[in-house]
Automatic annotation (TrEMBL):
Residue ranges of domain Aminotransferase class I/classII large in the record: 46-386
Name of protein: Serine palmitoyltransferase
Stated role: Involved in de novo bacterial ceramide synthesis. Catalyzes the condensation of L-serine with palmitoyl-CoA (hexadecanoyl-CoA) to produce 3-oxosphinganine. Also capable of using alanine as substrate leading to the formation of 1-deoxysphinganine (1-deoxySa). Contributes to the levels of endogenous sphingolipids in its host.
Reported cofactor(s): pyridoxal 5'-phosphate
Pathway(s) where this gene product acts: Sphingolipid metabolism; Lipid metabolism; sphingolipid metabolism
One Gene Ontology cellular component: membrane
Stated family: Belongs to the class-II pyridoxal-phosphate-dependent aminotransferase family.
Keyword Transferase: yes
PANTHER family, A to Z: CLASS II AMINOTRANSFERASE/8-AMINO-7-OXONONANOATE SYNTHASE, LD36009P
Catalytic activity: L-serine + hexadecanoyl-CoA + H(+) = 3-oxosphinganine + CO2 + CoA
Alphabetical UniProt keywords: Aminotransferase, Lipid metabolism, Pyridoxal phosphate, Sphingolipid metabolism, Transferase
Length: 405
């Protein structure tokens, strides 16, 4: 019955099967062992350049110990929503620490980063307001906007003239909220926050920044995009996730006490979903403590980032100028992107193919991400293999005599 009812959908859904037939299917690969910078898949060791664990902390003994201790004290799950039986002391402590870390009055933990955006963006601006998005904002921001019933307008990526023309066209008294990624998740570039804040002040719009990829990465001690630009007070709402630098799972939003209190009692993705287990809160707390107490890890992340960015640029790759731990290698062809990823996998380097709809059709790319814990040997090994596979497949834009300078 279900086959017949959904036949029209399944009929057009051929891409994964085609990739499998071509031996290029890159998704849902079970990892047998994870050591942050290296993983075991199908019994084989791979260098990990496709993880968001920027600080490389998921195997840190203090974090593992904190998670185990939380399981011993609270069990494996809260078995309920934050609103009812799903708030442990660890959740409350983590919220206080996070608010302090990003420089806001109050914070609220959601079950994932995705739900944080869903539950924040959808709850604050209603059907009479306007949500203004960068066209490359994360999917969770787009879904949150849709749920809000507000009018949703998009400006061209990081294009401040386009943002201004949208703001100018809207009635003064209408509620407007600009939502941007701090560091864009696929391209790795940073939003022009000073210009955004200036326009927002002029046209009376609220500003929300998604710091999923910026927390632990930029700003004082890794406290995010607003801190990086010295604009913490000018940004109204900051959200981020635990699934990247904080070595756990979950998400949070930080803002004024009133905003957080409103979300606590009105945000449906918060109220009607189970909270993160205390072990996940304990892991994030321990990671935050390590990030605050060991700033040399941030230095290592940036040293590795600059090293890899310089190497891929001098190899002649089409990449960006931003130099953040997210390093895109633009291939601009879906098939070649999958082929490049698969060949690297065979050579022992794990990277992620990013094709439409995650990025516009002509921008398909291989996304590499750097960790603080990558060693120079690991970086060199990856660079050597990338050069080998790129030469084999002819994906360089311009050769710089093939030498890393
Ligand atoms: N925002 C951005 C910019 C992201 O890249 C992601 C995840 N990739 C999220 C939100 C959602 O976070 P999570 O994976 O913790 O749900």
């Amino acid at each position: 019955m279900i086959q017949q009812a959904l036949h029209h959908k399944f009929e057009k859904f051929t891409a994964p099967a085609e990739l499998k037939r071509a031996g290029l299917y890159p998704y849902f690969r079970p990892i047998e062992e994870n050591r942050d910078t290296e993983v075991i898949i199908q019994g084989k060791r791979l260098l990990m350049f496709g993880s968001n664990s920027y600080m490389g902390l998921t195997n840190h003994p203090k974090i593992k110990e904190a998670a185990c201790k939380a399981i011993a004290q609270y069990g494996s799950s809260c078995s309920g929503s934050r609103f009812l039986n799903g708030t442990s002391q660890l959740h409350v402590e983590l919220e206080e620490r996070l608010a302090h870390f990003v420089g806001k009055e109050s914070a609220l933990i959601f079950t994932t980063g995705f739900q944080t955006n869903l539950g924040t963006v959808s709850s604050l601006v209603g059907r009479h307001g306007v949500i203004i998005l960068d066209e490359l904002d994360h999917a969770s921001i787009i879904e949150g906007s849709r749920l809000s019933f507000a009018r949703v307008l998009k400006f061209a990526h990081n294009d401040m003239d386009d943002l201004e023309s949208i703001l100018k066209s809207l009635p003064k008294e209408q509620i407007k909220m600009i939502v941007v990624d701090g560091i864009f998740s696929m391209e790795g570039d940073v939003c022009p926050l000073p210009e955004i804040v200036q326009l927002a002040n002029h046209y009376k719009a609220l500003v929300m920044v998604d710091d999923a990829h910026a927390l632990g990465v930029i700003g004082e001690n890794g406290s995010g995009t607003a801190s990086h630009f010295g604009l913490t007070d000018e940004v109204d709402i900051i959200m981020s996730t635990f699934s990247k630098s904080l070595a756990s799972v979950g998400g949070f939003v930080a803002s004024t006490k009133e905003v957080i209190d409103y979300l606590k009692h009105n945000s449906r993705p918060l109220i009607f979903s189970a909270s993160i287990p205390p072990s996940a809160a304990a892991a994030a707390l321990a990671a935050l403590e390590i990030i605050e107490q060991e700033p040399e890890r941030l230095d290592a992340l940036w040293r590795n980032t600059r090293y890899l960015a310089k190497a891929v640029r001098s190899l002649g790759f089409d990449t960006n100028e931003a130099e953040t731990p997210i390093i895109p290698l633009y291939i601009r062809d879906n098939h070649l992107t999958f082929h490049f990823t698969q060949r690297l996998f065979e050579e022992g380097v794990f990277v992620n193919p990013v094709v439409s709809p995650a990025v516009p059709g002509d921008s398909s790319l291989v996304r590499m991400s750097v960790m603080a814990t990558h060693t120079l040997n690991q970086l060199d090994e990856a660079i050597e293999k990338i050069e080998k596979v790129a030469t084999e497949l002819g994906v360089f834009v311009e050769r710089n005599e093939g030498k890393i300078v």
